[in-house]
Amino acid sequence: MRKNFIRFGGISLGLVTLGCLAVARANPGAPPHPVLVELFTSQGCSSCPAADAFVRELPRLGYGRDRVIPLTFHIDYWDDLGWKDPFAAREFTERQRAYAQAGTLVSPRGEDGIHGSYTPQMIVAGQVHFSGARRDVALAEIQRAASIPEPAALAAEAAIEGDQAKVTARLTTNERPAAQQTWRLIVALALKQGRTDVKHGENSGETLAEADIVRWLSPPVAISSDAGPVRVDVPKAHGLAWKDLELVAFVQAKTTGHVIAVREIPLPSR
Q1: Into how many domains does the chain fold?
Q2: Residue 113 resides in a domain
Q3: 3 state DSSP class of 54
Q4: Is residue 97 a contact partner of residue 57, using CB atoms and an 8 Å limit?
Q5: DSSP state of 236
Q6: Reduced to 3 states, what is the DSSP secondary structure of residue 7?
Q7: Which helix (H) or strand (E) holds 8?
Q8: Which of 28, 34, 69, 181 places its Cα 20 to 30 Å from the Cα of 202?
Q9: Domain with 133 in it
Q10: Domain annotation covers residue 5
Q11: pTM for this prediction
Q12: Domain holding 195: CATH number?
């Protein structure tokens, strides 16, 4: 489906109407687990630096990797505003567009939020979306998602072989095999920290400091507790050292977009 965008001060409003999805209820007694937070952003958007700064500051706010695992996806539909984002990729734009077209995202607390694709868009656990500039909402949604028990336990490890990381992931769950049929494993390779001097566009003259910048995303791979371990080969980003990179694995339901589980994968020291 083709989608047009309306631009308002660095925010794009996609002309796609989102449906509703019943979000799982919180359980205050659930064991703690990390929550996946996705930020769709662009260096060509004047509204985005504040959201990127929030992601960068999460550890200082007490939200370490045991509580939240953020990934920032730089989209490319603002590249025609005078600055071509060096981290932007069409596949990241397509991931955001797939969320919008699926119609499964909901706004916090049932409020009538923005629809379609826009920046900065933050998505928590593949279910709830809102502007990434809304820090209080983000922290509340992270806490809510963390209080919902994970339906599966994900374990993942990596071995470095030259310019590839060999990832092995396993899933443990009590869910029936039928419930696991739409579960997919996705592995992301991200740059821990990045700094860019922006020369043109809405952020011209600014030096943007960003974190958890996705540089590569694997195709979804079917995973279930019965199928045994799943292996994914991850190519190292060109010109970067392994010490500057991080690996993240997560399991997402293809039909609902719900992120079942997420884990950071330790990289062996090189």
Answers
A1: 1
A2: yes
A3: helix
A4: no
A5: P
A6: strand
A7: strand 5-8
A8: 69
A9: 11-17+33-265
A10: no
A11: 0.89
A12: 2.60.40.2060
Helix%, strand%, coil% for the chain, nearest 5: 20, 35, 45
pLDDT tens series, the chain, 270 aa: 233 343 434 444 443 333 323 344 544 455 689 999 999 999 999 999 999 999 999 999 999 999 999 999 999 999 999 999 999 999 999 999 999 999 999 999 877 667 789 999 999 999 999 999 999 999 999 999 999 999 999 999 999 999 999 999 999 998 888 888 899 999 999 999 999 999 999 999 999 999 999 999 999 999 999 888 999 999 999 999 999 999 999 999 999 999 999 999 999 875
Q: What is the DSSP string of 120-160?
A: SEEEETTTEEEETT-HHHHHHHHHHHHTSPPSEEEEEEEEE
Residue 62 lies in a domain: yes
> Strand pairing partners for 257?
none
Report if residue 6 sits inside a domain.
no
**CB 259 within 8 Å of CB 223:** no
